[in-house]
């Protein structure tokens, strides 16, 4: 099946700094990628839909100025958490559709101290 | 809009015993249904999916699920679990390709 990678797998940053997370489709082209957030012992919540070459679509309640999404190529989408705070600590997962099936990245564990 | 309800937050089960994880959904349109498994600190792996056709769907690792439209359910079953099946299981629904709505998850704990 298709492979989606994420980098980094885990990151620790200080409060007030920004962190960039990369999501790559390794063996297929992804015009659309999805970003999810998962708090401990909770389900995945869709944050935004990333569209190649156009603006991302954010879900209700997700601050677009805080969670910047860039989808500049057919194989790469990035999520930048700006001015991170401890409450942004979470597991961030991306996914993309290939052949009618969603493929998920391995996730990025963000810890803001 | 759709929603997904997983009725059990945690299911303890002995090794080699059967397990059933319950999932109910609500939607005003036709949906596609999925079950995913998540191991600690990892992404999601697709176990099986229902798109159309036969209501009994077989997936990987010996799992199967049955789509019941009248009861709006998509319960997941395995006749004999292994220790390695200890994980979090998510039921998900979508009415179009892409945006998935996930249930709250069911933690399966298999003990010897």
Could you give a quick summary of the protein structure above?
The complex is a heterodimer of chains A (113) and B (112). Helix content of chain A is 0%, strand content 56%.
Give a description of the structure:
The complex is a heterodimer of chains A (113) and B (112). Chain A has 113 residues and is mostly beta strands. Chain A has no helices and eleven strands. The mean pLDDT of chain A is 92. In chain A, the strands form two sheets. In chain A, strands 2, 4, 5, 6, 9, 10 and 11 form a seven-stranded mixed sheet that branches. Chain A has a four-stranded antiparallel sheet with strand order 1-3-8-7, with no helix packed on it. Chain B is mostly beta strands and 112 residues long. Chain B contains no helices and twelve strands. Chain B has strands at 3-6, 10-14, 19-21, 23-26, 32-38, 44-50, 56-58, 64-68, 73-78, 87-94, 101-102, 106-111. In chain B, strands 2, 5, 6, 10, 11 and 12 form a six-stranded mixed sheet that branches. A four-stranded antiparallel sheet of chain B has the order 3-9-8-7, with no helix packed on it. In chain B, strands 1-4 form a two-stranded antiparallel ribbon. Chain A binds chain B through residues 4, 6, 32, 34, 42-46, 49, 91, 93, 95, 97, 100-102, 104-107, 109, and chain B through 34, 36, 41-46, 49, 51, 90, 97-105.
Report how far apart the termini of chain B are.
Answer: 41 Å
Poorly predicted spans of chain A: none
Question: What would the principal axes of the Cα set say about the shape of chain B?
Answer: globular
How far the N terminus sits from the C terminus of chain A, by CA atoms, comes to: 37 Å
Q: What percentage of amino acids of chain B are in beta strands?
A: over 45%
Structural class call of chain A reads mainly beta
Name the quaternary structure: heterodimer
**What is the residue-averaged pLDDT of chain B?**
92
Characterize the largest beta sheet of chain B: strand count, sense, and whether it forms a barrel: 6 strands, mixed
The shape of chain A is globular
Structural class of chain B: mainly beta
The tally of beta strands of chain B, per DSSP, is 12
**Helix/strand order of chain B, N-terminal first:** EEEEEEEEEEEE
Radius of gyration of chain B: 13 Å
> Considering DSSP H and I runs of 4 or more, what fraction of the residues of chain B is helical?
under 10%
Largest interface chains and counts: A-B, 22 and 20 residues
């Amino acid at each position: 099946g298709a492979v989606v990678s994420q980098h980094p797998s885990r990151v620790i940053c200080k409060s007030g700094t920004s962190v960039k997370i990369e999501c790559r489709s390794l063996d297929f082209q992804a015009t659309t990628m999805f970003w999810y957030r998962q708090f401990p012992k909770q389900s995945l919540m869709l944050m935004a839909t990333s569209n190649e070459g156009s603006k991302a679509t954010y879900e209700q309640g997700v601050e677009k100025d805080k969670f910047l999404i860039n989808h500049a190529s057919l194989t790469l989408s990035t999520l930048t958490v700006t001015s991170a705070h401890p409450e942004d600590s979470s597991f961030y997962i991306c996914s993309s559709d290939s052949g009618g099936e969603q493929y998920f990245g391995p996730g990025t564990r963000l810890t803001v101290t | 809009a759709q929603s997904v309800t997983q009725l059990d937050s945690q299911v303890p089960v002995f090794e080699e015993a059967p397990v059933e994880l319950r999932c109910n959904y609500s939607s005003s349109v036709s949906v596609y249904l999925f079950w995913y498994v998540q191991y600690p600190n990892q992404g999601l792996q697709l176990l099986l999916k229902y798109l159309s056709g036969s209501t009994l769907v077989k997936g990987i690792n010996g799992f199967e699920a049955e789509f019941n439209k009248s009861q709006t359910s998509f319960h997941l079953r395995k006749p004999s679990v292994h220790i390695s099946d200890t994980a979090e299981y998510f039921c998900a629904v979508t009415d179009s390709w892409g945006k998935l709505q996930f249930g709250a998850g069911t933690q399966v704990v298999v003990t010897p």
